[in-house]
Amino acid sequence: MKQWGAAVFCLMVLFSVAQAWTARQGGSFILSVPSAEGATAGSVVFLGKSETLFPDGNGLKTVLGVPCELKPGKYPLSLRLTGPNGLNEQRLGTVVIGRTRFPTVSFWLKPAKKKLLKRDLIGEEWALIEKVLAQEEPVQLWVGKFLRPASGEVSMAFGTQEYVNRKKRGQHRGFDIAVPIGTRIKAANNGTVVFAQKLTAFGGTIVIDHGQGVHTLYFHLSKFLATVGQAVNKGDVIALSGNSGISSGPHLHWGLSVHNLRVDPNQWTKHAF
Ligand SMILES: [Zn+2]
Q1: How far apart are CA 113 and CA 88, in angstroms?
Q2: How far is the CA of 227 from the centre of ligand 1 (A)?
Q3: For the purposes of burial, counting CB atoms within 10 Å of the CB of 3, is it exposed (0-12), middle (13-18) or buried (19 or more)?
């Protein structure tokens, strides 16, 4: 009986050491620790960044994102768990990153829009937005799957390699939906509006905080129908769409940020994180 106990214990150790997760370029994945493991606090280090695990029901959880430009392969993940009775354990795991086939798109910006395509201006405005993305509300506000903020043709998928006026630019960090100016834009999930400003490069911009480091972004808006500090529910109308900022035609640029990293929002409409 004792030998069986030892064998089971060894298997458990092997299992915890060999823990593995799978994800794709530009995708998100859940990291959770069931309450049965006895940890009451924890953190995870992945791709050189440390994130706190949030209480979730009786266990701990956080969602992690994968940069779209990260090469497919195996990457280490380190979990630190602490709890009562002196629990202080480090676990090592592996995240297997699969390839995503990102499309390539060429489009043309008219001179009035092209002149907004300046690295300094974009950098300054990103710094403003990233200040709110860096704020992590520990309570999960989102419920279930996210909804698409507007229905319309997908004019540019996440991760698309962009060529603007024949020049190679970066990969697209959002999900574009072609809609006429003035289309009602809905909150993709429950949360709090934490940013609503008319920017030069991104146009009318709203950011919703969904808690636990998850935010959604809405660019090129023509009118705000929600204010900073307002609590919104999934499906509430927050703005009207537009063509403001660097935009080649009327559309909504919808972004999703996980711990200040832009990932594919479309995955969140298919899977409840
Ligand atoms: Zn876009």
Answers
A1: 55
A2: 23
A3: exposed
Domains, the chain, ordered by start: 2-98 (2.60.40.10), 104-270 (2.70.70.10)
Instruction: Say how many C-beta atoms besides its own lie within 10 A of residue 193's C-beta.
Output: 21
Residues 226 and 202: beta-carbon distance below 8 Å: no
- Each residue's pLDDT tens digit, 212-239: 999 999 999 999 999 999 999 999 999 9
Secondary structure tally for the chain: helices H, strands E: 4, 22
Which 3-state string (H, E, C) describes 23-35? EECCCEEEEEECH
- Distance from the alpha carbon of residue 94 to the mean position of ligand 1, in angstroms: 32
Spacing, Cα 176 to ligand 1 middle (Å): 5
Tell me, in angstroms, the distance from the centre of ligand 1 to residue 172's CA: 6
What's the pLDDT score for residue 5? 52
Strands 237-240 and 87-98: unpaired
Question: Among residues 174, 175, 177, which one has the least CA distance to residue 153?
Answer: 177
What distance in angstroms lies between residue 173's CA and the mean position of ligand 1's atoms? Answer: 7
Helix, coil or strand: residue 16: helix
Strands 191-198 and 231-232: antiparallel
What are the tokens at 266?
Answer: 């479309």
pLDDT score, position 31: 95
Q: How many whole angstroms separate alpha carbon 160 and alpha carbon 175?
A: 9
**How is residue 15 annotated by DSSP?**
H
CA of residue 249 to ligand 1 center, whole Å: 11
161, 115 contact by CB (below 8 A): no
Residue 55 Cα distances to 140, 202, 207, angstroms: 9, 35, 24
3-state secondary structure of 150: coil
Question: In this structure, which residues have their CB less than 5 angstroms from ion ligand 1?
Answer: 174, 176, 253
